[in-house]
Amino acid sequence: xxxxxxxxxxxxxxxxxxxxxxxxxxxxxxxxxxxxxxxxxxxxxxxxxxxxxxxxxxxxxxxxxxxxxxxxxxxxxxxxxxxxxxxxxxxxxxxxxxxxxxxxxxxxxxxxxxxxxxxxxxxxxxxxxxxxxxxxxxxxxxxxxxxxxxxxxxxxxxxxxxxxxxxxxxxxxxxxxxxxxxxxxxxxxxxxxxxxxxxxxxxxxxxxxxxxxxxxxxxxxxxxxxxxxxxxxxxxxxxxxxxxxxxxxxxxxxxxxxxxxxxxxxxxxxxxxxxxxxxxxxxxxxxxxxxxxxxxxxxxxxxxxxxxxxxxxxxxxxxxxxxxxxxxxxxxxxxxxxx
Length: 339
Description:
CATH class of the largest domain: Mainly Beta
CATH topology of the largest domain: FomD barrel-like fold
Helix content: 25-40%
Oligomer: single chain
């Protein structure tokens, strides 16, 4: 028997397009959905839903609610098509519930699914998490009659909603999302540089307290230490360069994660556990690989995503050993002014 899904929220059009291609029916569609898909597959609409799909709080993904057999089938379909998707069981939401987080690449793929049905901005689903009505307005105004303007309109909206808010000295939060859904906020960084063309931010982070040690490096934290954090949107990693008060290098930490997403006040990603550390004078190490393996066994991520994380980690290690990746890309006069 064909499954029928009731879908509501910002991912409705994209997921409807995705599941219809997989031979899965849509239940109780809204009038807007019926109109958009009538010419595609109106025969795939049903009056009864086997599965309900709705936005997560924060709109970073969806909640699937169905019996275990249906959930398993949907999870397999989603996992096969979207590399950086994260799954979480949520017993507190009911015995038959599963959270699905769509990270950077998954959101981008869903943007393309939606664009096949209705003109859609690049980064539509990310922008909709915090500026839903504005995104809808701009798409109707700029793309309905001129879909060929997609890239120019997208850059305009992205600049207005995100990049124009990046002023020197602004504090940018780091939303470090664990695979189980826990959100850890790393210390904020003062914005030193924002480069829209390169999609890159450079932050100075100074809120370190003495008495503890740096993860991976196992070196002492001291009062006055600071970090220069370099982040490029869409990258599978970003770099912390740790320094003493006088500018002496402590070491480097490369955090591996789902491709980084930029927001007006923060960066966001899902941490993939495995990381790379480097110490002054030599010594480069991939750390926490067994933790990543355990998370696969727990069902949070796919084997394919695990292998991607390991591939990135060992490529980084090779590049560092060969003499790349450790030099800061900050102009020397800018770095001098931060010390």
